[in-house]
Design a protein that fits this description.
Length: 110
């Protein structure tokens, strides 16, 4: 749709980024892997714009993120099944989240 418009659009798949969002979680953090500085993703986005890439995984140096992206394209059903078993959402957590949303609360609100 954008061809010839002078507008470039890109899809960025970021990994875990070390931002304040991790301090706003309502329950203990389940992710204990590496978190990258925001500058890494910002630099990848600038590079993506400058080189007119259509899609990137950021940080580009993270092999696991690249592998996950390739697997999600080649065998999406296996990836969905694996992700669903990694950290299943308990029904009571889902109910709690719906109640908070219906009450107008946002992430980080007490």
């Amino acid at each position: 749709d954008l061809e010839g418009s002078g507008i470039h659009c890109a899809l960025v798949h970021p990994g875990a980024i070390a931002t304040e969002i991790w301090g706003k979680l309502d329950e203990p953090e389940a992710y204990d892997g590496k978190k990258y500085p925001p500058e890494v993703v910002a630099n990848d986005i600038i590079d993506t714009i400058n080189n007119k890439r259509l899609e990137i995984v950021s940080p580009r140096s993270d092999f696991k993120l690249k592998l996950a992206r390739v697997m999600s394209v080649l065998i999406p059903s296996v990836v969905r099944k694996g992700v669903s078993q990694m950290d299943p959402i308990k029904p009571e957590h889902l109910l709690w989240a719906k109640e908070r949303a219906n009450a107008g609360k946002k992430m980080g609100d007490r």
